[in-house]
Amino acid sequence: MTHNLSDRPADRRAGYARWLEGRDCTDCWKAARDSDTESKEAWLAAKRAEEQQAARAWAEQFDMPPLEGPEKALAWGERSRHQLVTTAYSALVSEGTWDEADWAVLEDKIRTIARAGWWIDQRDAEGSDLPELLDAAASNDVGTENPFR
Q: Which of 23, 66, 127, 139 could bond to 88 as cystine, CB 3.0-4.6 Å?
């Protein structure tokens, strides 16, 4: 592919030309990207399955209740909850000033949020923000409380 370098300052042309040499043309790049879709999808499916297995094992280990919501949101919600809570534990207990008693109180609050969509909405939150987020959760985010847990 031909590039016009006349609009570049003279001292930047050589570097840009070297950079262009190492790149495919736009059409070739798009063709390579589109042809590799199947392997990307397989990799992503394997990654999601691995994350889902870890989230389920974690939920079982720490007695987390099942989430509520549309079927297609449940797995994503479980992964989001797992990632946020483990990040929060690292930030607050492992690296922070909280002790296990403080965490146990927060863990009880975590168990009350049963709506998968709430966890999905919080997926980009910082772990240290979890206590504040849990306090702000609305009543429709809280699941049916089971006194026989």
A: 127
Contact 82, 119 (CB under 8 A): no
Q: Which residue type occupies 53?
A: Q
* Residue with token string 């403080």: 102
| Amino acid at residue number 125 | A
Asked whether residue 142 carries a pLDDT value surpassing 80, the answer given is: no
Taking phi first (over 0 means left), then psi (-120 to 50 degrees means alpha), and beta for anything else, what does residue 70 get? beta
Helix, strand, or coil (residue 68)? strand
Report the predicted TM-score, pTM, of the whole model to 2 decimal places. Answer: 0.71
Q: Dig out the tokens for 119 from the structure.
A: 């966890």
Which parts of 1-149 fold into alpha helices (H)? 10-21, 26-35, 37-61, 71-89, 100-112, 116-121, 130-136
> Residues near 124 by Cβ (< 8 Å), separated by ≥ 6?
none
More confident site: 91 or 140: 91
- Three-class secondary structure of residue 6 per DSSP: coil
Dist CA 149 CA 63 (whole Å): 9
CB 133 within 8 A of CB 122: yes
